[in-house]
Automatic annotation (TrEMBL):
Taxonomic path: Bacteria, Bacillati, Bacillota, Bacilli, Bacillales
Keyword Transmembrane helix: yes
Main subcellular localisation: membrane
Organism: Niallia endozanthoxylica
Superkingdom of origin: Bacteria
Family: Belongs to the acyltransferase 3 family.
Keywords assigned by UniProt, alphabetized: Acyltransferase, Membrane, Transferase, Transmembrane, Transmembrane helix
Protein name: Acyltransferase
């Protein structure tokens, strides 16, 4: 069994170090992920500098990368975010808990929706056609277009926090009851069940569609991992995963990576058939069933890897940790800025991606460092 020594896993502030380090890694991955979409990866993004309607090696490679990332990284983000909700609620009580969430999540969400999102979109697409004030009047204040962007994650966390607080307040569940970490066969069954649920949801809401910035096609796994984060804290799952189960699911997760392109090819991707986003077709069913198996395997593997290899901190790592939330909030304009800066150069899209991704990561953390030096910024970010 992986019996984690909590004294070793927590720093002086009571934070679990390896989970903080994992969050930093995922934040960096989000920046790289969105940079890859700008140069051909599958997905929606503010500004693209590539003709992704034409199948190319770059489009294929980056689409595989985005497909694999999309299958696990936001689910794991939700797990990490909800893992700490029970302790916060138990310490503060419902009123103070919700007040804190409104400050830490609600204010950044509003700032992104009305400031960062609109200005980034205006700069990328409308600055040559209308003034910023005209853009706000025609697009933002008219609510013709939503500007949640990546802040949909904050939006969802705010909803989850409210639901959790209401559930705890009205039901007062038995916190002494223990639920063991699911066994391997149970995880397989859950993966199939949630794969079929996702396939069913995507008949109505294919991936990339939804309301208020929420892509409902991905939400079955997101909801599962939000619940799992709370359960993992309450029932000490992270300290009690069997070595055999971890090893098995790490292998499953790694095997699922090459199965993704093979499955797409087998269902007609090379002939232009790319319908995995949803609908009553074999490719959409394959994608929906493949996704949870990769997600479970990669998430379990990453948690244990960081638990064993990255359970330490330093001054530099602490700077990255405290900046991660701000980086998530500000990364869209940074990526768009670098994309526009490299647009005049006649470089291949993949070369631009290799340059823009690390530059965006570094720039985001540098800007975040200075933002957090603004008085009272750390109370919100």
């Amino acid at each position: 069994m992986f019996h984690m020594t909590l004294r070793k896993a927590e720093n002086q502030m009571g934070r679990i170090v390896y989970l903080d380090n994992l969050r930093v890694f995922l934040t960096m991955l989000v920046v790289v992920f969105h940079s890859s979409i700008a140069y051909g990866g599958a997905g929606s993004w503010i500004l693209k500098d590539v003709d992704d309607s034409q199948l190319s090696v770059t489009v294929i490679i980056l689409s595989i990368f985005t497909g694999v990332c999309q299958a696990f990284f936001m689910s794991l983000f939700f797990f990490l975010s909800t893992y700490f909700i029970p302790a916060s609620y138990d310490k503060k009580g419902p009123v103070s808990f919700l007040k804190g969430r409104l400050i830490r999540i609600g204010i950044p969400l509003l700032f992104y929706y009305f400031i960062i999102g609109p200005i980034t979109n205006w700069f990328a697409h409308f600055s040559s056609r209308m003034t910023l004030s005209q853009f706000y009047i025609q697009k933002v204040f008219s609510f013709q277009q939503n500007f949640f962007g990546p802040a949909w994650f904050l939006e969802t966390l705010l909803y989850a926090s409210i639901v959790y607080a209401l559930y705890q307040f009205f039901t007062k569940p038995n916190k002494k009851k223990t639920i063991d970490f699911p066994k391997g066969k149970t995880l397989v069954l859950i993966a199939f069940i949630f794969g079929f649920i996702a396939f069913s949801v995507r008949l109505i809401y294919p991936t990339g569609t939804g309301i208020w910035g929420l892509q409902f096609g991905y939400f079955p796994l997101y909801l599962l991992f939000m619940w799992a984060g709370v359960a993992a804290y309450r029932h000490k799952w992270l300290e009690n995963m069997s070595e055999k189960l971890v090893k098995t699911w790490k292998i499953i997760g790694l095997i699922m990576i090459p199965i993704f392109p093979v499955g797409l090819i087998a269902t007609g991707a090379l002939s232009g058939n790319l319908n995995f986003s949803g609908g009553m077709n074999t490719q959409a069913l394959f994608y929906a069933l493949w996704e949870p198996f990769l997600c479970f395997g990669i998430c379990i593997g990453l948690i244990v890897y960081f638990q064993k290899r990255w359970n330490f901190t330093s001054h530099f790592i602490n700077l990255l940790r405290e900046s991660a939330y701000t980086v998530y909030l500000i990364h869209p304009p940074v990526i768009v800025g670098w994309t526009m800066a490299f647009r005049p150069f006649g470089l291949p899209p993949f070369v631009k991606f290799v340059l823009v991704a690390p530059l965006s990561v570094a720039t985001c953390f540098i800007i975040a460092f200075f933002i957090l030096r603004i008085p009272h910024a750390k109370k919100i970010l």
